[in-house]
Predict the 3D structure of the following.
Amino acid sequence: MSFSFKDLRPVDGPNSNGHEFAVAVEKGLSGKPKRLPSWLIFDDRGSEIFQEIVRLETYLPAVSEIEIIHTHQRFIADLIISQKALQIIDLGSGDGSKSMVLLEHLIQKNQRIHFMPIDISAGAVKNLVATLRSKFKNTSLTVTGIASEYFQGLSAISRGQFERNFVFYFGVTIGNQDYSSAGKFLRKLWGALNDGDFVMIGFDLMKNPKLLYRAYNDAGGVFQKFNLNLLDCINQKLGANFVKQNFIQEAHYNEQSRAVESYIYSIEEQTVQIAALNREFHFQAWEAMQTEFSYKCTMPEIEALAQNNGFQIVEHLLDSKKFFVDAIWQVKK
């Protein structure tokens, strides 16, 4: 069995991630209010900090989903086990800790698996491939780690010898989009898969706003470190002179959008220069810059997302407190 890595991210150019990064920063800092998309945070360092977040006891999406995976691993494995090789695709794989629970269970059943972790962080994917090689080198597991945007990675999947694809989309990544955008993402995902393929998608359910506040404002400041990494990314990639000590982060629940919204606040009046843009941007004291959304769902909304975008609902797996759901759907064409 083989363990390989592919970097499909484009090199710098008019259509590269570097160009997109610069365009997103200039547009976001020119707006009123200022707003930067969360994907800008996820360089290798941002991905490492996010793994610290998912290990926090107060971060309920991760705590709840880990419970679901451990509780229902046999059900999930029995659902997808195949006489032929099985292709498992993990979108936004990070350190792969969740998918690894299911991989171990399937390997124990002698299931032949081609595992494809896809993540924008090359460092995260390389580390995961190395971990899997060390742990499973004498098993039936084949691994192709891909550093890329999700759909670019999906376009590279092999379809010939595998009977079925199973896509993991763990965490609350789909919750970083509003309801309409989530629907467009799911329709595109449906188009990238074959009839009969499965997806398993995490949705964070609406709950007590006090619990939501604690989940996104940890006492140790990991969320703040994660969000302020965005300033480091802009400094490194665009030659800016953000001083992190001049900013703080805070998140709150917005009952109108039904999302937890994260903001970076400038603690003093200041001006930041960005060399690559040949521009400077002024911040008033306590001016807010939005960096993240995390939308919270209801079960009827989740069911409608499946039905309106070509999926048949197979099972909705809930944690014991009903804070989170992993939806298992099948592609119908």
The radius of gyration is 20 Å. The longest strand covers residues 247-254.
